[in-house]
Amino acid sequence: MSLLSLQTKLTAGVMSVVLAIASFSSLAAHPNLVITQNDVIKMRSALDSKGHFSERYYSLKSQVDQEIAFPSVVPVPKDGGGGYTHERHKKNYQLMYRAGIIYQLSQEQKYADYVRDMLLQYATLYPSLDVHPKRKVKSQNPGKLFWQSLNEAMWLVYTIQAYDLVHNALTDQQINTIEQQLLRPVALFLSEGQPTTFNKVHNHGTWATAGVGMAGYVMNEPEWVEKALYDLDKSGKGGFLKQLDLLFSPQGYYNEGPYYQRFALLPFVTFAQAIAHNEPERKIAEHRDGILLKAIDTTIQLSYNGLFFPINDAIKSKGIDTIELVHGVTVAYSLTNDTGYLDIAKQQGQIILSGDGLKVAQALDKGLATPYEFKSAAFGDGNDGKQGALVVMRTQVGGNQALLFKPAAQGLGHGHFDKLTWQFYDHGNEIVSDYGAARFLNVEAKYGGRYLPENNSYAKQTVAHNTVVVDETSHFNASVSVGNRNAPTLNFFETSNVGTVSSGEISTAYNGVELARTLALINVPELDSTIALDVFDVTAQAEHQFDLPLHYKGQLIDTSFALRANTTQLAALGSKNGYQHLWLKGQAKPKNGLAKVTWLNDNGRFYTQTSLVKGDESFLFTQIGANDPNFNLRNENGFIRRVNGQKKHTFVSVLEPHGEYNPSKEYTLEAVSRVTKLEYSQQGDLTLVELDIKGKSYLVAINKAQNATKNTFTFKNKEFTLNGRLGVYAMKNNQE
């Protein structure tokens, strides 16, 4: 090759690099993250029209005006979660973000000045900080402004957007100070300074990579973007894209459960928008067959009456109006124009001031919302969708009802030891309940707002849930690492006009013990009601004690058997694995036949669990609160069905909603259970349950075969045909 040719080739190579850098740099016009310059133009033009968008703008502007009327406060970090300095820094990043938006839309300099001054205050403070003084949890990386680096990453996600929004109002010297003394140190602290968290496939890693990647776009650091996407060494073993690949199932279910799914949704959605606006050629919305959109929709599906199903470490008051899902729904509608998302946006009652938010607002103004469809579905767990599933059964027969079944994976460190547990909801309320997390979020007086010790000693333990406990020992011996390696198997899921049925099993929760559960939410339109059928098979190689708890919400009304209550003195049910936190309030040993427990829920309905017993089961009535010196736990009620010295046992029961209690109008209807017969039998792969309820007889057939083909069977000298998994047959004088 001639020297001239070589020089020409090198020059071309250099020019290509220069052009690539120039291209990235040109994209750094501000704002350029979630809100773009084109968005700003459209949003400004919408402010003169009445509607959802202008109403939200003027409302937010009024709030921001009130807040910026006071001097900004950037305190030296001192307090843990929920304390003054923690909440002040949290409020600061939210205020800077909101003020930045108002600046872009109003073009009033005072809003940019406020953000500028606060950023400069942080730029003075941050270089002087060591790690946070309240760091206590050894397994978590500390922040500097906050007690854990997770909150530091959240601060960066919001603050980099605020900086982007006011960037063009700053002088070169101010930009240099803010970037060199604040934003760059924070980004490097969260990435190179904490590589384990940054590279981790976990919600902490999601927030960190989102913050650093967005900072890369704003500050023209393409290397930061690459590291955020592909891991610090750009190997692809970690980073944002690997989190999209591993943390969600193909259906969009997040491994840690709905509560953490909505929490992680914001950095996923926000960084994805930044990627789409700056590097559309990456086609981030199409990544993994549109996994982000699936994740948003699944987050909505995993809610009931506006609240998320509280599995794993969940705060039970979190629902679809959380800001993370507001952002998610906004993006989902923008991507799909699906008017069902407008229904959710309407329920959320919040408009995001962004280009996508404007689209939602204008659609709501036009009345385009249509009812969002909540479905019965099995959401596969694990990145391959084959590590069990979270099953949701829904029906509108007799009222809005949902049954949640959990043959799902462990859920990492936030997971609970509750394989094959279930919950039930009716008429807007939780009926068969799950404790959720033992935590007073951001209430510093309660253990600094962190998870309470009882989260480990009770809430995560198996007895705190509605599933079988063997020998008073939790699943996997309460080992997260073992739990993460062993997921249940979803045997089947099917929904039809007669109801929904699902079955799951696991043989690794205990050595030498197989657990298999089948649950069905069955429509009984003749009674304008439903029933929930539960068949739990336990098979062991040696004799054990089997406990099956049921935690219920409401007041105990009646039992069909004599109950020996402890009225003068209480003792804990056990000494460990959660049993030490349960008061034993009473016990009984029902005779062979039907054992009924009835309670009244706050929704004014009665609920009866009718259990089929053979005289070998004890019923232990419990209340949470033993060995709880700081009164950290809620005093909720439950009962445990117990058998001793068994190798094999099948727990069979039916949950029946019935009646009504109206204290205002002083009437009570059908307070007594209507179930008069419950019989259970097996025919090969068929489970057969005969049920008499309110003078009507039904046969329920469930096909557990590996492949549920058309099945003809005989029951009481009559022939029946079952197509699929679940069949419900009205019986009268042994006639179909």
UniProtKB/TrEMBL annotation:
Its main location: periplasm. It comes from the Bacteria. InterPro entries: Alginate_lyase_dom, Chondroitin_lyas, Hepar_II_III_C. Residues 1-28 form the signal peptide. Transmembrane segments: none annotated. The keyword Kinase does not apply. Keywords: Lyase, Periplasm, Signal. Residues 382-604 form the Heparinase II/III-like C-terminal domain. It is found in: Periplasm. Residues 56-301 form the Alginate lyase domain. SUPFAM superfamilies: Chondroitin AC/alginate lyase. This is Alginate lyase. It comes from Pseudoalteromonas aliena SW19. The lineage of its organism: Bacteria, Pseudomonadati, Pseudomonadota, Gammaproteobacteria, Alteromonadales.
